[in-house]
Specification:
- By secondary structure, this protein is of the alpha+beta class.
- It has helices at 22-32, 41-49, 94-106, 122-126; strands at residues 11-14, 52-58, 64-72, 77-85, 113-115.
- The radius of gyration is 15 Å and the shape is globular.
- The N and C termini lie far apart (37 Å).
């Protein structure tokens, strides 16, 4: 399936950086996301400031319930990262709808590819057209940790 999934009623997606609840995003990622455990707040704030951010919000309370960010040049490449859905709203398709919205937001840029890394959510991303690398032997990484 590559159609854009609709967001559950009562929620909205925004790319407005002023709506991001940076404290909440930091708490989610630094305490509950395997890829960001222990990430310092200052580093998370820099990541938010340098990225295209997506938030999902409860339309009644305004509370942020999900987050994703994209590192991109808006021309050839994007990396989707820090995708997180609050445990209290998981199972409502919010993550899938948010990633679909990210994909559609990036589509007009004419990017060659959007990359992401996941340990346990391959099925979510496959529904939206993501596939495993065809030639992983062509990719390299430089790690400072």
């Amino acid at each position: 399936m590559t159609d854009t999934p609709s967001l559950a009623e009562g929620y909205e997606i925004s790319t407005d950086p002023d709506r991001i609840d940076a404290e909440r995003v930091h708490r989610w990622l630094s305490t509950d996301a395997y890829w960001a455990i222990g990430r310092p707040r200052e580093k998370q704030d820099r990541a938010i400031a340098g990225s295209l951010n997506f938030g999902v919000y409860d339309t009644v309370s305004g509370e942020q319930v999900a987050y994703a960010r994209v590192v991109t040049d808006r021309a050839a490449f994007a990396w989707l990262c820090d995708v997180y859905v609050d445990p209290s709203v998981r199972g409502k398709g919010i993550g899938t709808a948010m990633v679909g919205a990210v994909r559609e937001h990036l589509r007009p840029y004419g990017l060659r590819r959007i990359l992401l890394a996941t340990h346990d959510a391959h099925g979510v991303y496959e529904k939206l057209g993501f596939k495993a690398l065809e030639r992983p032997d062509q990719w390299m990484t430089l790690s400072f940790e």
